[in-house]
Structures are given as structure tokens and as C-alpha cells.
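TOPIC: backbone geometry
CONTENTS: sequence, C-alpha cells:
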Amino acid sequence: MPDPYTPTPKDKFTFGLWTVGNAGRDPFGEPTRPRWSPAEIVHLLGEVGGVHGVNFHDNDLVPIDATDAEAEAIKREFAAALKRTKLRVPMATTNLFSDPVFKDGAFTSNDAEVRAYAVQKTMRAMDLGAEFGAQVYVFWGGREGAETDAAKDPIEAEERFRRAMNFLCRYSIERGYGYRFALEAKPNEPRGHMFFPTTGHYLAFIGTLDHPEMVGVNPEVAHEHMAGLNFVHAVAQALGAGKLFHIDLNDQEFGRFDQDFRFGSANLKQAFFLVKLLEERRWDGFRHFDSHAYRTSDRDDVIEFARGSMRTYLILREKARRWAKDGEIRSLLRRIARDSKDVDALTASFTLGKAETLLAMRFDREKLAARPLPYERLDQRTMEILMGVD
């Protein structure tokens, strides 16, 4: 009997060159794994099996100081590896944070020439992504922030970011790329304070753009957890607004530095409710694993990391289906839900007559307060399903 948790390309699981290609370096230690070429990383993902595609920052693929001849050779080798493994490039992005030129930001830098260079670099990276068929373009403003508010006017910084996004939207339109832009929030690190720290901040910002229909969000588990927030709620808000264009799956202990753990490895219950939300809402986007193997891992263990990321998602998907069909869960939900179309209709839309009807109604507060809400049992049954108890 085939393993029901074996991924296929139809599951739309993707990894980045920078994720499985992470060399194990951290702020306190040198790399523990070799630096693999883009083509070698693609071949590794081919060994993993079931992967839909591989994503990249511009400089993950082509080093920032590569000559034209070197760039063309790298791209040829990368394209050949994609063809051999049948992997696609669903998403691309720009590295606007590593090079020292971006020490004070890219689109929000206090230097006009740096801001212009950041837009130029992004246009060229968009060209590169389009060359390999990318459909989604992610923007993570890794240096868009400050350590001291004396350094930047936050209103002007936001306006600078807005001008850049408006310009790049027009560039995509004029080039016919058809990109869907996805903005990725993070509360801090590497800057002391980020200008767009949460998904909600970006959802508010999008409505101020010239082409809001082109722009959505790319929420990341670890980034919301760093702020101590409920990631499922952030994703739900994005889904409700029709703005979930991409998602980064990983895991993170609350309140820690950016750990980028394997999906579901730190907060399994949160991972379950996230998978449940995405699957029940039938979201058809790419499930991108923006995480990396432990620093202790060798190449074989990196492959296990990638397989485990996908396998955990598929196991939780099956658990979500079981949860929805479980007899006790269904009974508890029926007891909890006290819907009334007639009552809800009073506040669904305003009329003076509805307002007067509502004002005239009498509510028995004590009776309402006494109604049972068996959430403890509901949560316990959820835990039992996750732990495999019948």
C-alpha cells in the first residue's frame, strides 16, 4: 500500500535555493556544510521527490558581482537542472538586505541614490524571475527600518516605499510579466524596528497603492511568532481580504530570534490549525518552506529535513479531514453554535426599521451567560486526534 503522506508536485510544495542550500552558518559560527551551486541544490530537491518548484533571490542564483558571461553560464546550468528534475520556479524575490549598500534600507534609505539602485536591482531581478517563469514576486524589506527614530521620518519612509511599489507595479505591467506582488512582514531583525512589522500592517498599506489589485501578502510563520502573535489569525485576515498571494511555512518558538525551524517542529497545534484553515478554504497557492535544516545536519539530513517538512503538512492535512468528520467534534460544534438567520439579519445591513426592532428587543443576560461552551472538551478532543487517539 502506498504511503499516503508521500508528496507529489500537485501539492505545490516549494523550497528556496537559500533554504535547502543554507550552509549552516550562524552569527556565532562558520558554515558546517558546503556551499552548493544552484544546480546542485535543484538536483538535491530532485532526490527529495515530490517537490513542485524552487524559488530564489536574484543573488542566490547569480552573485551580485558576477560578470555577464558568468551569469549566463550559471543560468544555463540552472535551467538544465530544472529540466532534468522537472522542477519549476514559481516565485522570485530580490536580495535588498545583504550587501553593505543597504545598511540603512533599500526603498526607505535616506540616500536617494541607494533608493534608485534598489529599484534598479529589483527591476533586473524581476527580469530574471520572469526568464524562469516566476508567477509571484515577494518583497521582504529586511533593512526597511531603523534603530533610532531620530534617523528617519516614518511617514516619509512609508511614502518612499509606496513610490517604489507603485513604480515596480507599472514596470511589471509594461513588461507584461503578470506578477502578483506579495509583501512579507517581520517585526525586527536585522533592524531594531521594522516599518511594516506584521501582516496586518501590510494589508492596511496595500489599499494606498496605485494598483492594489496586484499586491497581496506573504505571511511567514516565524515572523508573526517572533512578535508573539497568532499566525493563523494573520493568514485568516489575508484570506478574508483576498490577499493571500503566497505563504512561508516554517516554525518558531515565541519571542526568540528568527529560528526558521522545520514546519510544525515547534508548535504542532498552531501548524495543525494553519493547515486546517488553508485546506478547508481550498487555497490553491504555493506552500513554500522558508526554513532550513539544523546546523548539525549533513547533506543526507538536509534531504530528511525537506521530506519531513512536506510529510508533516500532509499528515496534518489528513488530521484536519479527520477532525472535520469526527463524531464528537461535530456534536460539540453543534452545541456551541447558536446561529439564527432572523437575528443575524437585523445587523447584516442597516435600516432604520432594523435598528428600531433591535432597540426594542429584550435579552435575558443571565440566560445567555449560562449557556454552556464546552471548549475544554473540544480542545482536548482536538489534541487526542493530533496524538492519534481514536
The two ends are 22 Å apart (CA to CA). The beta strands are 13-16, 53-57, 91-93, 136-140, 145-146, 180-184, 193-194, 215-217, 247-249, 287-289. The chain has a mean pLDDT of 97.
